[in-house]
Amino acid sequence: MSRHYNRHVQSEELKILLSLEPDWTISINGKEFISASAADIEVDGARISVGRLRRKILSVEWLRPNTPRVRTISRVRSQPEVLTFYPGRHLPSGVDLRRRRRTFQSQMAKALSQVFGSRAPVKQILHSDKQHGIGGAYPRFIIGNRGAISVDPDEPSPVINGVMRAAILWSQRVRHRIAVVVPAQRSGTLVRRLHAMPALRERLDWLQWNGESIEPLEMSLNDMETYVLDYQEPHVGEEVARICSLAPDLLQAVPHIPERGISIRLRGLEIARVCEKGTVYPMGEALEPLIETLKNERSHGSRHPLARAYEERWLESSLIRQIQDVLPVRGDAIYPQVPSFVGENRSIIDLLAITNEGRLVVIEIKASADPDLPFQAFDYWLAVERHRKAGDFQNKGYFRESEIRDEPALLVVVAPLLAFHRTLDALVAELPQNLPWTQIGINQSWKREIKILRRKGTLG
To answer: pTM for the whole thing?
Structure first.
């Protein structure tokens, strides 16, 4: 009796809610989505109808005050269905993303069946497998004795490039040969990696989706994705010295290459930018109180939001200050973000340095776990190598006091030891065997002082 009464109350509440909005978008088991007006939805006791769809209500759960999830059962199906009602014709961003990915997954399943010539049912997987480092952005398929993984062309660049990492990790989970389907018009970074990784190119089947069909991946290299700006040291020494004298132990002067100036930072946050045409103050010109605030709030042990914001920049600043305690490089020739990537916001900090013997050193910095770190670092190293071989760095004014050796740049990845993702070793194993790779794990309390806890690889 109590259960019947409770279900009746839930149904009445649901009936009232569904009458309040003129339009609804309904998710069916999170896979199929339909739109309906309030006039098309009817709740009658323990039954709900949406157009021709009629179901018995088993329970009602409220995700939010205006978002009910209704568990239902049909006379013709043995398994319950979950109907989630979202107000309006537009889904919340997260739900809309899942719908887009589901739609793309269905599209891929049909296209892959045609490519593989299989009439067997296609097993489709889209859930996020965090344990094995495979995100929900990558639809996976089992078709007979073949496996496939893909990525939607509408995903951001880091997600599209991350399909290589997901494919490697998934191939270790299944016993089938894996095909990787990438967007035809957005495959440049993946193709460059594959040219440098012939073993991976052979081990997996690389295909592309052109919007209508699947075909072999076009492996020709297109235009460069990176460029090197000219660097001329600005004549602003007096102004830089004046500002840095306000807190010489805290303030740090770093080249700001795009503006042809000097960026003055406190624990990674820019408080002034000095160029020959003048000085700008991004946080306000009253520097003394600003410095005092940042000194106290952006400090080790502080719980203030400023202590957690832009941690990569803070780690970069600390690393530059202690660079010769960590790496055998020149402390007076360290450049950020050289070369630059065209039209891409990268989530890691890149530094370019040089040893006393003249060998370039690429330094990648990450303050938190990022499963794509090995391949993002490799992308940057490939770019540096292209420009090194072309002579771009010395031709454009970098490392004027050194002769750059004709040897591959060293690649160094620096992060707190616990921030290295558990899949890192499996991914590094896929990189070229002759890549000069070094991994440096530092202490979690690096905001106070950097200490090296683990070093893997060689710097020679």
So the answer is: 0.79
